[in-house]
Amino acid sequence: MREGTAKLLAACKHMNQSLEAAKSLLTSDIRLAEFRNELQKRKHHFQKLNQYSKLKHQFQTFEYH
Q1: Which domain of life is it from (predicted)?
Q2: How far apart are CA 40 and CA 32, in angstroms?
């Protein structure tokens, strides 16, 4: 979507078209940044869960020996 909007912005001949295309481009960039941020949060969360799971398993293994 971003690439199409950028092409539209380049082809615009009227000020209103340019403003709408620029607005769409900025909105798209903001949404992409938010999605990237959410993915980073989830990745960090799952890494923490994975570490916790490994430690829990090690503790349980140690406990039974």
Answers
A1: Eukaryota
A2: 12
pTM, two decimals, is 0.62
Contacts of 18 (CB under 8 A, 6+ apart): 9, 12
First to last CA, the chain: 58
The answer to whether the beta carbons of residues 32 and 24 sit under 8 Å apart is no
DSSP 8-state assignment for residue 65 = -
Contact at 8 Å (CB) between 24 and 5? yes
Extents of the domains making up the chain: 2-64
Helix (H, G, I), strand (E, B) or coil at 54: helix
